[in-house]
Specification:
By secondary structure, the protein is mainly β. It folds into two domains: 32 residues, no CATH class; 160 residues, Purple Acid Phosphatase, chain A, domain 2. It contains four helices and 13 strands. A five-stranded mixed beta sheet has the order 6-5-4-12-13, covered by helices on one side. Strands 7-8-9-11-10 form a five-stranded mixed beta sheet, with no helix packed on it. Strand 4, helix 1 and strand 5 form a beta-alpha-beta unit. The longest helix is centred in the middle third of the chain and has 8 residues. The protein is globular, with a radius of gyration of 19 Å.
Length: 195
C-alpha cells in the first residue's frame, strides 16, 4: 500500500478520505485534529514592542482587536505571522480602509467574533450579547478598555478575552498580550504575557 500525496488527499468535514472512495468519513477515515496557537493583541497605539515577535513566534495567527494607531503596525505584525485585525476608535482611514469594525469567523471548531469596543460579560455593549448568542459565538475578543480580562459567560457559553493594551499610550501600568490554543472545539492554554 502506497502513501497518498498531499494532492491526493481529500478533506471532508475534518476527516482524511482516500480519493474516489465510497467510505463513510465519519466511520472509516482518519480524523484530523487541528491545533491553532493564537496571539491576541490590542491597543498598540502606534507602538509595537519588539518583544511581541518573540512571544508570538510559536503562534499560527495574530489577532489584533483594534486601536492599531497606523497601518504600519499591521505590516510589522504580518511580518511575524498571518494577521486578522479590526479597526478601533483611534484608527484613521489608512486602517479603516483595510480592516473592518467587526470580524466573525470559524477557527477550527470555534465561532469567533472580534471587535474593538464590546464590553464584557455583564456589561456588554448594547445589543452585543444577542449578536453573540444568535451567531453561536464561543470566543469573543475585544479591546478598548486597556484592561486585561478573561471571563467565561455561562449564560451564552462564550469565552470573553480582552488582551489589554500592548502600546505605551493610555493609563495602563502593565502592557500585555494573550496567547491561547484552539484545538478543534476546545480552547485551552490561555496565558497572559506581560511586556
Amino acid at each position: 500500500m502506497r502513501n497518498l500525496s498531499e494532492s491526493e488527499i481529500i478533506w471532508h468535514n475534518r476527516y482524511l478520505v482516500p480519493p474516489n472512495s465510497d467510505l463513510d468519513p465519519a466511520t472509516t477515515a482518519i480524523k484530523v485534529n487541528y491545533l491553532m496557537r493564537i496571539g491576541l493583541i490590542s491597543d498598540t497605539h502606534h507602538y509595537l514592542d519588539p518583544a511581541v515577535a518573540k512571544y508570538f513566534a510559536d503562534c499560527d495567527e495574530i489577532w489584533h482587536a483594534g486601536d492599531l494607531g497606523t497601518i504600519a503596525i499591521t505590516d510589522e505584525l504580518r511580518a511575524i505571522k498571518p494577521l486578522r485585525a479590526v479597526f478601533g476608535n483611534i484608527d484613521g482611514p489608512d486602517v479603516r480602509s483595510v480592516y473592518p469594525e467587526t470580524l466573525i469567523w470559524a477557527c477550527e471548531g470555534v465561532n469567533v467574533m472580534m471587535t474593538h469596543i464590546g464590553g464584557y460579560p455583564g456589561k456588554y455593549a448594547k445589543g452585543l450579547k444577542t449578536k453573540l448568542r444568535d451567531n453561536g459565538i464561543r470566543l469573543f475578543v475585544c479591546g478598548h478598555s486597556h484592561i486585561t480580562k478573561i471571563m467565561y459567560d455561562d449564560s451564552i457559553g462564550c469565552l470573553h478575552i480582552n488582551p489589554g493594551a500592548a502600546g505605551r499610550q493610555g493609563w495602563h501600568k502593565v502592557r500585555t498580550l494573550v496567547r491561547l490554543t484552539i484545538d478543534g472545539e476546545e480552547m485551552r492554554d490561555c496565558e497572559v504575557v506581560e511586556l
